Amino acid sequence: MSTLQGGFIKSFGFEHIPVATIVYAVIFFILGYFLYATLAALLGSLVSRIEDVQQMITPMTMLVVAGFIIAMFGLGKPDSPVITVTSYIPFFTPMIMFLRVGMLTIPAWEVLLRICLLIATILILAVFGARVYRGGVLMYGKSSSYKDIKKALQLTKTK
């Protein structure tokens, strides 16, 4: 208990972290959460049995793992072209932009562009997911492939 007398921030060495980095971390965390939650809702709307959820969610999990691996690669060289290019891909942006913002000095327009791309992707996935859900509710039987997205969209158009 006596080791925390200087405060939490000082005890763990966080006093040297710029406030902007913490703000960006919170923004990218929240946007990343909404991005993957929206994608999970879209994929989850295609299944009617809980046993089928894992099969539909696996590609999304692979996206998260790929983003994490790319971010780990970026720890050694955060200014590499691979890291810069993948930070434009919305599914990798939450992890990679946090890495870049924390390790490099990035112009504000780049950060704002990534935030706008993330928000646009979330909105597109939400609208698309709502359309898929509307048709997916009408589907019966086992849904085990991504072809069901097309079927769900066709059911939406016929109604």
Low-pLDDT sequence parts: none
Tally of alpha and pi helices: 7
- How many strands, which pairing sense, and closed or not: the largest β-sheet? none
Q: Beta-strand level of the residues, as a percent range? A: under 5%
Domain unit count: 1
Order of helices and strands: HHHHHHH
Overall, the morphology is elongated
Summarize the structure.
The chain is mainly α and 159 residues long.
Secondary structure blueprint with pairings:
Layout: H1 8-11, H2 19-44, H3 53-76, H4 81-86, H5 93-103, H6 108-136, H7 147-158
Helix pairs in contact: 2-3, 2-5, 2-6, 3-5, 6-7
Walkthrough of the structure:
The protein is an all-alpha fold and 159 residues long. It has one domain (17-46, 57-158). It contains seven helices and no strands. It is elongated. The N and C termini lie far apart (64 Å). The mean pLDDT is 82.
